[in-house]
Sequence to fold (424 residues):
Amino acid sequence: MTLAVTNLTIARGGLPVLADVSFVLETGQALILRGPNGVGKTTLLRTIAGLQPSLHGTVSGAQDQIAYAAHSDGLKAKLSVTENLTFWAEVFGQSDISHALKAFELENLSDRLAGTLSAGQKRRLGLARLLVTGRPIWVLDEPTVSLDTASVAMFAAAVEAHLKSGGMALIATHIDLGIEQASVLDVTPFIARNDVAMGSSNEAFL
Amino acid sequence: MNALLIRDIRLAVRAGGGFGLGLAFFLIVIVMVPFAVGADTGLLSKTAPGVLWIGALLACLLSLDRLLALDFEDGTLDLLATAPLPLEAALSVKALAHWITTGLPLVIAAPVLGVLMNLPTQGYGWLVLSLLLGTPALSVIGTFGAALTVGIKRGGLLLSLLVLPLYVPTLIFGAEAARRGAAGADVSTPMLLLAGISAATIALMPFASAAVLKVNLR
Fold:
C-alpha cells in the first residue's frame, strides 16, 4: 500500500501556502514534516486527510485509510475514558479498546471522566484513539504537545509498533521522536509565491 | 451510527448537557400565557393550538445553538469527517438525537400544557399528532442552520435569523392542523402537508447540511 502525494498545492484562507509538494510513503514508513510555524504543515495534513480541497495536484491511496489527529482530540469532558474510546472504536467499526488503553497506560484512568484528566493525560487518550480506528495511515499534527518525556517515548513506541504491523505515519512535529524508520521532510522549500496566477482568486476561496 | 446516537443522548442527559432546556422554556412560556392574556377561557382555548405550537418551535430553536458548536470546538467534527460514516448519516443521527432529547419531550408535555390553555377536548389528539409530525422537521432544518453557522463564535443570533423563515411553513401547517382539530373541523389537508414537509426535509436536508458543514470545516 502506498500514499502518494503528487504536485500538491494547498491554500489557507484562499492564499496558496505550499506549492508542488510531492512525496511517496510506503508500508512501514514514517515521514516527519518540519518547518517553521505558519508554513502550512497543518493545512497540508488537513488536505491529505480530505478535510479541505487542494488547489492543484493529487493525493492517492488516502481514501478511507486515514486516522487523523489534530490539536484538539475530540474528547467529551462528561464521558469517561472508556466511553470516549469505545465511541470512536464503534464509529470506525472496531470493538476492542484494551490494547489502546494498555499502549498509553490509561488502564488506571479508564473510569475517570475525560474532563478530570490533566492535559497530558487527555493527549494520551487522544492518541490512544488512533489505535482503536484500525486505519493504516496515521496523520498526526503535533502529537506530542503537552506530553512529558516518558509519554513521548510511549507515543514513539506506539508509532513504531504501528509501522511494524504494516502501518504508515505522517507526523508534523518540532521535536525528535527517535523513530528509526522515519525520514524527515522539511517543507520550507515548497513555500508558495503569492501571486494571482497561483489561484488566489475568490474561486479558490470558495 | 448507533454509537453516535447513544453518545449524543448520553451527553445531553449528563450534567451541562442541555437536556430539558427546551422543555423548561416551553413550560415557562405556556404557564405564563394565561397570566398575560387573562382568564378569558374562550380566548385561551381559541389561541391554544397556535400558542402551543409557537412555544414548541421557539423551545426547539433555543437548543439548536449547541447542536454542532460543541463538537466543532473540541474537534469531533473533523474526526467524524474522516470517519467511515458519511457526514450526511452523521448529521441525520445528530438531528435524530436532537429530536429525541428536545422534540419528543415537547410532544409529551404538550397535552399537559394544553389543560392550562383550556384546549378543547377533541383537540388533544390532533395537537399531539401535529407536533409528532412537525417536530422532526424542526430538528433537521435546525441541523442545517447549525451546520451553516458552525464556525461562528456566538452564532446564535445568525442561526435564529436563518432558521426562523425556514420554520414558517412547518408552523403554518402544524398550527393549522392543531387549530382545525381543536375546532372539530377536517384536519386532513394541513396534516398531509405537514407530513409532506417533514418527509421532504428529512430526506433532503442532511445532504444540504453535510455540504455546508464540509465548507465550514475547511
